[in-house]
Amino acid sequence: MSPPQKGKQATKGAKQILDENVATLKFYRNMAMISNALSLAILVFYHSTINIVFYIFSSLVYIGSYQFMAYMAKPKHTPTGQLLDSGVDLNMEGGIAENVKDVIILTAGCQLLSAFISNYFWFLWLLAPARLFWILWRNILSPYFFQPAPENPIMDEKKQKKLERKQKRMANMR
User: Fold this and answer.
1) Measured between alpha carbons, how far is 138 from 105 in angstroms, rounded to an integer?
2) First and final C-alpha spacing in the chain
3) Could you tell me what percentage of the chain is helix, strand and coil, using 3-state DSSP and rounding each to the nearest 5?
4) Would you tell me how many other CB atoms lie within 10 Å of the CB of residue 18?
5) What's the pLDDT tens digit per position in 43-79?
6) How far apart are CA 41 and CA 53, in angstroms?
7) Are 138 and 127 within 8 A, CB to CB?
8) How far is 57 from 9, CA to CA, in rounded Å?
9) Distances (CA, A) of 55 to 62, 102, 122, 166, 169
10) Calpha distance 48→46 (Å, rounded)
11) Does 172 have pLDDT greater than 60?
């Protein structure tokens, strides 16, 4: 085995990305199915309109999130079956898939806590728009509002002298 390298992180191969994407999709699919099944088991005995509405809502969130991640990670193959593109790496730090995985985790937490403890745990879903605003603020709004003022470019001596002569001529003409 080679010693660990300092500095730049090694890149992943297409096959490794494909394998990790399949494992990631399987993990989050299982998480969604288990939390949905447990919530449905509780819903059968203690059903109310609000619980049914939130159960349907959470199911739609799971389906949409999973389908979005599956679309992102869809590999492309040649007609002979050789791997051309492994799709987007779902485990990449700072990628959009990270936020989609957070939505699945938040939904599972809200669903299970509300099923077993109290319906008030559905209010945790308000963390999703708060997180969306935070990402919007950090990546788009804050750099726009707090960008430094443009600095005057430092002119070389020739341009500076030429500008001074021009200003003197203008002053003498008046």
Assistant:
1) 22
2) 81
3) 70, 5, 30
4) 18
5) 888 877 888 888 888 899 899 999 888 888 787 777 8
6) 15
7) no
8) 40
9) 11, 18, 10, 75, 79
10) 7
11) yes
Tell me, what amino acid is at 139? N
User: Tell me: the pLDDT tens digits for 70-105?
Assistant: 888 787 777 877 766 667 777 778 778 888 888 898
Q: Name which of 57, 29, 30 is nearest 114 in CA terms.
A: 57
Q: For the chain, what percent of residues have pLDDT higher than 90?
A: 3
Q: Are strands 76-77 and 83-85 parallel, antiparallel or unpaired?
A: antiparallel
> pLDDT at position 1, please?
45
pTM: 0.68
Residue 83, phi then psi, degrees to nearest 5: -75, 120
**Dihedrals φ, ψ of 15, to 5°?**
-65, -40
Contact (CB, 8 A) for 90 and 18 = no
* Both tokens assigned to 144: 């726009």
d(CA 138, CA 124): 22
